[in-house]
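Problem: given the chain below (385 residues), write out its structure.
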Amino acid sequence: AMSSLPDAPAIPPRGVLLHVGVHKTGTTAIQAALADARPQLKAAGVSYPGKLQAQHRAALAVLQRPWGWNTRGGAVLDRSHFDSLAKRTARSSGRVVISSEFFCEADEPTAAEVVRDLGGDRVHVVVTLRNLGRLLPSSWQQYLKYGLTTPYERWLRNVFDNPGQSTMTPTFWKRHDHAAVLTRWSEAVGPQNLTVLVLEGVDRSAMFRSFAQLLDVPEEVLVSRMDLTSNRSMTAAEAELLVRLNKKVKKELQWDEYVRFVRRGVALGMVEGREPAADEPRLHTPDWALDAAAEQGARFVEVISSLGITVLGDVDALAVRVESTPPVAPEAVGMLPVDAGVQAVMTVIDAARENPTSRDLAGQLWRRTRAQGREKLRRGGTPAS
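Solution.
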């Protein structure tokens, strides 16, 4: 039966709650709730800094890791994104909550630096965890939205052939060696200042309730906002569309175009724009990969139990070998429902028509192409399309 997590004690009145992920554990949903609840949080003396949904830019800036494709339009964010978050946090008189799953990728020195710059003793880290076997399909799909062109099984081989390293998606184990993530953050912040929420066998509202308790705000403030985003997984056919589309367009596009048309367009459009029918096949994770994931999970449990950190929820659930959905017949993978295709095409048309100035990064791109277009017109050429 689904249940709730044990109550979480509130962090101190000037505490900083730093949520470092990990990826694919409902992070988007809690961030959407925190962002939407900013006025209520503020009234309760809690600050969720900035105006965006999460503090990803600060995290990527401190990691100094490029966002996007290194060679075609990816960029390393300026360190000032993190520094201004640190300044804002230092100025706050009440509690502060910060969330970005990219923080979980920090190495030991960077984690230590993040804790120091966000207030040292003020900082309390919270980590949300799910069973690794359950995370595999959504993790692969996350990489598809980054341009990955490798089919699911081949990617799984790459991830598990040499646990700890992946040549295709080097960040996978940085995120999902949960034992290593917790060890790094426990060392950075002290085991007494680290809380883990194990989100297995609990209802969807459990995480929202725990965050509210940690921040000492009424549970309703976050629980009532738990359905603001739909971050559902793709069906097998939707994912196949993305794999094939990536193969076709990846070499032609710049990162900002890819984000606009494929990542935000096709991927988001299909997922947010429709609810798949119950009989549409979901991704199948093969038995050997689920065995390998359970083996890693058992190792995670051992390490986590030895760290002396606070674990809310059933830590042993991380070592359970999960069941997968049934295998998908090869012909079914190529059967995308027409309404999914329509939804994808509509979103791309929207992306092409929309004046993207309202979208933070796309604004500069639009002005640049328009200026180039005017330049060409003056020279008698054709405007940039």
